[in-house]
Amino acid sequence: MRFGVSTYMGAAAATFWTWAWVSEGSSSSILFLLALLVLLLGTRMHGWYFDTEIFLLDNLLCLATHLADGLGFGFRYLRIDDLASIQSVRKTQNGLLEGAWQREAMGADWKLDHWLVPQEGQEDLKIYVHRPRSLHAHPDKRLPLLVWFHGGGFVAGIAKDVALKGILAELAGEIVVASVEYRLAPEHPFPAAPQDAMAAVRWLSEHCEQLQCTPESISVGGLSAGGNLAAVVAQQGRLEGITFKSAIVLIPWMIHCGTAHMESHAKHARCAALPMETINWFYRCYVQNPEKDCVDPLCCPLYGDLKGLPLHVVCTNTADCLADEGLEYVAALRRAGVDVQHVSCTGTHTFGLMADKRAMAELQKGMRAALGLA
C-alpha cells in the first residue's frame, strides 16, 4: 500500500484523538500533536523510512506517554455517558480523515457511489462503493468485490479510513471495494455493528450484478475493530449461505473478555499508539452485558465454529497490545483446518503497517492472492 503525507497526518490525528479528549490541559495535547505532525511531515518529505526493530515513532510516542504521566498530564478517560464530548471528538477526527481522503485517495482511477440500504426501525445503512472509472465502458466485465469495515474501537472511525486509502491505491482498476458505515457505540452498542455488517453483506451479495461483480468473488476485510467484523461476517455469512472467497483480517481486536490477561496486553499496555486503557474504555462502550456478550461469536469470533471458513490473511503487529489476540485467532483457524497466511509487522497498532516495508510487501502479495488477483 502507498501512503502520502496527509495519510500520515490523518493516522497521527486518529491515534491521538483520545489524548486531545482527555488531557487536563488542552494546550499541552495540542502542542504535542503539532510536534508529532511536524515529525511525520519531515519523515515523509525526507524519505526517512524506519526498518528498525521497533518503529522510531512508536518509541517516541511511548516515551511521551511516560513523560506525560510524570508531569501530571496522564490520561483521564471520558465517562461512557458523556455523549456530547464523544460526538465532538468524532466530528474533529472525521473531519481530519475526510480532508486527507479528499486530497489523496481517489484521483482519476476510482468512481465513488453512495448507496443507502433501508433498515427496519433505524436509519438507512450507508455503503460507499468504489469502482474503477474504466469499468462502465466494459459492461460485461466482472471484478472481485472486497467488503471493508473500518477500525476505531466500535466507537469512532469512518468508512473512508486510512487503511482503505492504501488498498485503493494498491489495487486501482482491479477490484470493487464497498466500505460500510456501521453504527457506533455507546449510542449503538453490541450487536449493532455486526448486525449492520451482515445487512451490508446481504445487500451487496444480492446486488453483485449491478456492481459488476460475481457472488463467488466476494471477500471481507477490516482493520482492528473492523478486523473483528470481517471475522464475524466470515462465520455468519457461511451460516446464511453466503460464500466468501477470503477474509482479510488486519491487526484485529477479538474482544477476548475485555481484560488484560494476555502477555501482549500487559507488555504493551502503555504503548501510546493504542494503550490498554483505551481498549478497556472501548470495551465498556461496546459491550453492555459482558457475561453473555463475550462468549457470543458475533462479539468474539473465537467462540464461533471456524471449520470450513475461507482463506484468511491475518496481520498482527509485534508491539501491539492486541498482538496476542490476533495470534490466538491464527492458531484457532489453523486448528480448524482453515488455510491462513499470517503476516507479522514490526511496530505498534496501525503504525507497523506503515513502517515495515518487508511485511507490507508480503501482505500486499497475500492480499492479491486472496482476492484472486495474483
Structure overview:
The chain is α/β, with parallel strands linked by helices and 374 residues long. Residues 1-28 and 42-55 have low confidence and may be disordered. 47% of the residues are buried. It is built from 15 helices and 8 strands. It has an 8-stranded mixed sheet with strand order 1-2-4-3-5-6-7-8, sandwiched between helices. It has a single domain, classed as Rossmann fold (3-Layer(aba) Sandwich). The protein is globular.
What are the SSEs and their pairings?
Elements: H1 5-15, H2 17-22, H3 26-45, H4 56-70, H5 83-104, E1 110-117, E2 125-132, E3 143-149, H6 162-170, E4 176-181, H7 192-206, H8 208-211, E5 213-223, H9 225-239, E6 246-250, H10 263-267, H11 276-286, H12 290-293, E7 311-317, H13 323-335, E8 340-345, H14 351-355, H15 357-370
Parallel strand pairs: 3-4, 3-5, 5-6, 6-7, 7-8
Antiparallel strand pairs: 1-2, 2-4
Helix pairs in contact: 1-3, 1-5, 7-9
**Helix amount, in percent?**
40-55%
What is the strand content?
Answer: 15-25%
Estimated radius of gyration: 19 Å
| CATH architecture assignment | 3-Layer(aba) Sandwich
Strand line-up in the sheet with most strands: 1-2-4-3-5-6-7-8
Q: Treating each run of at least 4 consecutive H or I residues as one helix, how many helices?
A: 15
Category from helices, strands and their pairing: alpha/beta
How would you characterize the largest beta sheet? Answer: 8 strands, mixed
CATH class: Alpha Beta
Shape verdict = globular
- Gap between N and C termini, in Å? 15 Å
Quote the CATH topology: Rossmann fold
